[in-house]
Amino acid sequence: MLRIKDLKEFLALAQSQIPAIKDTLMVASETRYARKARDIRHEGDDVFLIALLPGARPLSNDEDNVRFGNNLSFMCIRKLDGNAGDDAYTEAFEISQDATLALFKFIHDQTSNFEGHCVFKHFVMSSLQILPVENFHQTNGWDLSISLKTNFK
Q1: Number of domains in the chain
Q2: Could you tell me the CATH number of the domain that includes residue 61?
Q3: pTM exceeds 0.90, yes or no
Q4: Residue 74: which of 44, 55, 54, 91 has the closest Cα?
């Protein structure tokens, strides 16, 4: 199962490597996301990276070698101005799409750049899915979902 401290470190590293990401947040529920989304304020082309706390499932019945499949979901979002028109609506997708693609590249690089033991070197690239997020609590952007294999510790 992915440990929260490891996910926090991953988010901090992603934020330091992707200039467009202004801030990060971890949430476990839509209710918490809604509360936090009210406080988001943007400057320029800033994007917020939201990580949903992952669920986990065992990958086999082998009791001696327990591995988990963790379903991760990251949203790169921008706050919508209720009074803005279609251009601002589309711009939120454009700006957050660039950040989402940078996040994908960052994730892809993690699978090959880490030597030895590293939690984030076992992303399952074939599980990757990127979907638009439209007007979710007044935010637009992209949801990048991917699986990660971890060992039981």
Answers
A1: 1
A2: 3.30.2000
A3: no
A4: 54
